[in-house]
Amino acid sequence: MATNEHIVTSFDDELNGLAQKIAEMGGIAEQQVGESVAALSRRDEALAQRVISSDKRMDQLQREIEDDATHMIARRQPMAQDLREIVAAIHIANDLERVGDLAKNTAKRVFAIEGNFAAQRLVGGVEHISEMSLAQLKHILDAYTSRDLDSALAVWKRDDEIDAMYTSLFRELLTYMMEDPRNITFCTHLLFCAKNIERIGDHATNIAETIHYLVTGIPLTDERPKKDESSVTTVEYSDADD
Amino acid sequence: MATNEHIVTSFDDELNGLAQKIAEMGGIAEQQVGESVAALSRRDEALAQRVISSDKRMDQLQREIEDDATHMIARRQPMAQDLREIVAAIHIANDLERVGDLAKNTAKRVFAIEGNFAAQRLVGGVEHISEMSLAQLKHILDAYTSRDLDSALAVWKRDDEIDAMYTSLFRELLTYMMEDPRNITFCTHLLFCAKNIERIGDHATNIAETIHYLVTGIPLTDERPKKDESSVTTVEYSDADD
Predict the structure, then answer these.
(1) Which of A67, A131, A184, B115 keeps 20 to 30 A from A156, CA to CA?
(2) A Pfam family for this UniProt protein (chains A, B) (predicted)?
(3) Which residues of A touch B219 (CB under 8 A)?
């Protein structure tokens, strides 16, 4: 079963290669998240198009990381910590690729909302939640680079703030729709954008769990306290006529 | 680098073990998708709870498949077709786990919509699109079992029907919201359910792409024609007062 392939690079070189590709994905993901929300705030279609286009590179990098990692496992037969390093790289690449997809979906919605009614007032909540998600993403990528378990756990715990903010934004956007039906289309797109951004926070916590496993060798099995209650949230319509 | 571990099972036995776990995941996923929409139609909270609870088993199976597959790659150093079999199992388990998550999210929304206004009329479109997604899921799992490239490609091509139906449902639900603000909360939850179901179709096409790679050794690089235009769809509000 053993391959006859001649191994010319060291295992550490190969790990560094994976780390570089993940760093590139992380950089693109941060840019996509920031630019997708900026494009939404300013109704900047050119910027939205740039976010959409950059997703190709993310897909390509994820495929490369997975291929490189699989071949490293087959050729090197790594054990324990070495194997965890490689499996962690596959997981993190997968999470970052999904972050890119979510930013791309937000960017696409810029084209649906052009010239829409009362836009600026309504978009504020989305900007706010996206600042938090972007901060979580930056912190978790730093924690991965430095293998810093404490900051990874801090990111993991802080996700409930994003969830709580999303639930409150969900209520707010529903209220705007009820106030004026001209808001409905725009607010529906904003709801999906807000959901995308809340899910980017979930991917940051996935990466935190991967870092926990990488550093300690033990899966983080605690259930994270979820405070996204939007899926069970209702807003009652009240009107003087009723 | 070679391990001294004594290999007592055959490679084929191990592959069969992976296939059995994927078959179990596929069965649970189909049940979750069907039951989540049934729970929504009938506002059946007990059934919704069952869908939510069954997701734990999905997560556990996915972890097991990934662990088993990684250790097979490290121990067996498989090449070509054998390696593709193992990598395909990891990908398909990943897609099925996400299908389970999407069904769970739909099930959670059953608790938000209890006793809601005009529910039955509005839920019909969601039932319809879910029948299509469920059929796609069944077909692609059969195609995987029989390594049937033609039916995998048929599933891949048919996803544009789900996308087109979702775009039309998006418009319809927005229209209901504009007609009567008492529909807004319920229709918003239905919009998220419909989006979940549309994404289940996307996972069926991901599995189709995995089957293509597994059978031919070549990635399916064509861009699938996307007909989900909901992210760029607007519905204008018109009222006699305007």
Answers:
(1) A67
(2) PhoU
(3) 63
